[in-house]
Amino acid sequence: MSATGELFATPAEERPPHDAPLAERLRPTRLEDLLGQEKALDPEGPLGRMLARKRLASLILWGPPGSGKTTLARLLAKAVDEPLLSLSAVMAGVADLRKAFEEARRLRARGRHPILFIDEIHRFNRAQQDGMLHEVEDGTVTLVGATTENPSFALNAALLSRCHVVVLERLSEAALEKLLERAEAHLGHALPLDPAVRARLCELADGDARYLLNMVEAIADLPPEPVLGVEALGEVLQRRLPIYDRQEEAHYNLISALHKSVRGSDPDAALYWLCRMLAGGEDPRYLARRIVRMASEDVGLADPSALGLALAAAEAYERLGSPEGELALAQAVIHLALAPKSNAVYRAFGAAMRAAREHGSLPPPMHILNAPTALMRRLGYGRGYAYDHDAPDRFSGQNYFPDGMARERYYEPSGEGQEARLEERLAELDRLRAQRARGEGS
Hints:
Helix content is about 50%, strand content about 5%. The protein is mainly alpha-helical and about 450 residues long. Strands 2-3-4-1-5 form a five-stranded parallel beta sheet, sandwiched between helices. Strand 2 (about 85-90), helix 4 (about 95-110) and strand 3 (about 115-120) form a beta-alpha-beta unit. The protein is elongated. Residues about 1-15 and about 240-245 have low confidence and may be disordered.
């Protein structure tokens, strides 16, 4: 077969070689073995009804990486016993589409109903998408496109109107644990992981089956002892970062001294270290960037004017240059050193970033998603949203965290400066939120 159109053999006829990637060796050969997509394969849903009558309509498979879109396309072709032609929109062009359609017409002449699978279909431009309309419309091919992008925006309306959209979900940690067990059964031995590390491995996969199996390959050859802990797992899976040139030690020592003097509310020491660096030939623009960082990291909302003043100092230097603009940097340093101190924003950002990494790509709750297209409205986007400006106290108390994720508190005001008022505001919002949850008014 050509590189542009490939008739996939069923796994019973063509099995991956023993040295193929683990993800390819463990690719399901039956629809019932596909993990995590029970909703898409619901017998009462559109796809389930198509399978029941052994005839597919054109489909768009929309889901995140590693959710099984390519596997599902292969299994659907096998389930309806029709040939599958495959293209990747990353590599293919209009000429490749023509060749695929020619092959499809030959198959149609023999009474078959070929399925054209196009991976990453959103990579096709408007002309390429328009070029498929006639063959999809007249039944030359049944199109199955796979995309990680929202079809409402990634695909032409004319093409989208001819297809059913099947939404695939990121794999749950329970599904990933089953996949981990399948990998161990295939390898013939258990992986040297304690229960906490197994759970961590599934968290790191972030709903992506392929990524999980790639990590399994990285640890598959380890001896059964010692069992890996979380820290050891990180060492095994770590990616090397480029080595950073740290030969100019004085540069880093002096900027550390400046930063810590500001944090320690010592304007005289801070000015001294600022001038030491300027006298040594340090780029004032670098100092300006670090001063802006100090405003957010060490003062934050205890003095909301600090960030604006730091930015103004950086802009003043850009306008005036040296030596006139350096005075603005000195003014900012003194202001920051004397300002009330709070690292609450810094700590809140760090805590929220850790949570974002740990929880992966959980989607926002459906009620706060915009629904600019009919497809998105049918899928429930925006349903049940309460407009806060119309609520008592202009506060609805709705949940804005992902479904299934407990509410977390990241920002804890220090009580210094303006943050004392913010602390009171947060307490009031907590009271109102609890009141709304009980269904009470203001």
